[in-house]
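Inputs:
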Amino acid sequence: MKLPDWNSVTDEEFRLEARRFFDTHCPQQLRFLPRRMRWTECRGWYLKLSERGWIAPNWPNEFGGMGLSPAKQLIYFEELEALGIGRMPDHGITQVGPTLIRFGTQQQRARYLPQILAGAHVWCQGYSEPNAGSDLASLTTSAQPEGDEFVINGSKIWTSMALDATHIYMLARTRRAEKRQQGISFLLVDMASPGIQLRPIRNLNGHEEFCQVFFDGVRTPRDSLVGELDEGWAVAKGLLGFERLNIGNPRRAMQALRPLLEVVHKRGLDQDLAFMDRLTQLQLDMDDLNALYGKFTQQVKSGQPLGPDVSILKIWSTETFQRLAQLLLEAAGPYGALAGNLDIDGARVNVLAPFYNSRAGTIYGGSNEIQRNILARDVLRL
Amino acid sequence: MSSESQLRDSVTAYAKDAIPIASVRKAGGSLPGFDTGRWTAMADFGWAGVVVAEEFGGVGLGMAEACAIAEELGRTLSPEPFCATAVLAATALSHADGPRWKARLLRELAGGKSVIALAAAIGPSARRADGCPLTVRTTNTVQRLDGRARFVVPGGADGFVVEARALEGPELYWVPAGSAGLEVEQAWQADGTPSATIHLNGVEVPMDNRLAAGDVAQLALQRAADAGTIAACAALLGTMRGTLQLTLEYMRTRMQFGRPIGGFQALQHRAVDMYIQQELAACALADAVSAADSAAPAHVQGKAISRAKARCNDAAMLIAREGVQLHGAIGFTEDSDVGLYLKRTIVLSQWLGGSAEHRLRYRELSTVGENC
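Outputs:
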């Protein structure tokens, strides 16, 4: 089937079409959730997008994506956020897809990409370990080559949406090497494999969105290896660019801006000039975030690799989200102390959820302190 | 290669030899406040007339090219009046229609023969009436101008395009320096360049010195303010790049506790925050330039421009302050170049509207879009 080229319609036409489509097909109960969507509840919505060829806005057309320009991708996410439609388990779309397109074999692409699009495979990420967080290269989970299989032992932690995932992409040590970054391999593992156990962890916001994943003699075929054996660090580094681009997606910060504007209006704060100057400052931060996101998305789209400078996007996006969430709390006044879904003079918002949720972004995907280390070393040459 | 990057390269190449930082230091505090030889050279290269149409002796390029020049000149701390004359005044004149003077003044401006300043209440701070509007009274054969205009740059201009308030709205007049009844009083800006208060005590100019009136004058002032503000943003981006580069070099070479101070994480993270602000400023400026060079409605252009100025002001001031701090005691000396960057940054960030004023304008223009 030939997919239509959405880049050839005007921005306004695309915006209206996206709005119409999302609003018609996304069930009301999925809107404005204070947490990440669970797979069981959002599967139907995922499939709806998939059927139309709208599930992967960032993938090239040839792999079943929409191949959207950066400007159109922004519109796509803006319209989702405007309707209160949050993130689904999306690692397959945002991480695994781009990685296999870049590093995978023909067979791996053929095997996994259609399954991601069809919603048959749901992915999670196995990077951090209890003793390997910021210092990721010190990871100790091992994958011993045995015949035509790897045997995995160890554990991963802070694995988001692991409860919903059918597959995990992970880093494991395949060889002891002098340099810690060597001897690590990048593997794709079926979560149904015998020997995998999950321990859900409740987060600050009270939801079980992440897990510890235990591997006890888990066997996975040799062809689950992405890239070269022992060279997984390079694949992971290649993926980090996509991860930072994904975390840098302004849609997270929009989650706080939308309720903020509503609360400001309902509580009459638009008459308070001092408050409005702070709000405008954050709106400008948001505009500049959009521009920065557009710049890096354009880089990917034009086929240039992302450099270490993409870390500024991760920092700016996550910290802007936090500033917006903080201002929302202040704007809510006494309501800001109330947990759960609120009705603030007619504005239906959850004030604390964005505040809690925004804490995670500066920690995961390489903490913002690590991002600043990277920028200092690799961009500023300090 | 694009014309912007070609221009940028030629400005860099020229500035490398022609604008040593010592000359910037020396030029401060005396009239005209810049190097006339360099300004002539810049006119010969076509920079003074970059936005002036070819029929008036310019090269007829857009804001993207003007910004490439402004940014590089900002980076090298050139005190020449590129933003104020080649962009701000040139844009006002380009939108004027006075038949006697328009072509001649644009030609002289682009050729570097006349340094022209715009004396008008423009930018979002104009509403506070810091610039007192001049009044004009028309007799049979002459126009009589009274009043004063403040914060006119370059202060040492050869003549002024002044805004006067008539009953029907703003009007623009050409008033050469040395006109009878014109008194030019200089104040020195932080970076040593002059800012004039011009007093007009019954200055009489011929009828045809009127360059624009009514809607034409209004539009000319708006376009000039927009273009000048964008150029100021580009110059600020240049000072940011210069300051950060200077500071990073210092951090790589200054040894304390047996290692370069750039090796300390606390300082690295501050340098990264300077860099982030610089890159955001570049993004905001790029959006403003493409809005200005597009056919977008005025309020959309205005929003992008105010957004850019607010960001560039705040980013440049942060970078300049941190630049001084990271240099340590040397940064507090008059001899240190980082101080020159700070002073130029102060001047540019106060010019044509501060951050809070531009945020207010952004907010007001946002509601224009909603009401449509």
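Remarks. The beta strands of chain A are 123-126, 142-146, 149-160, 167-173, 184-190, 196-201, 210-221, 225-226, 342-344, 347-349. The longest strand of chain A covers residues 149-160.
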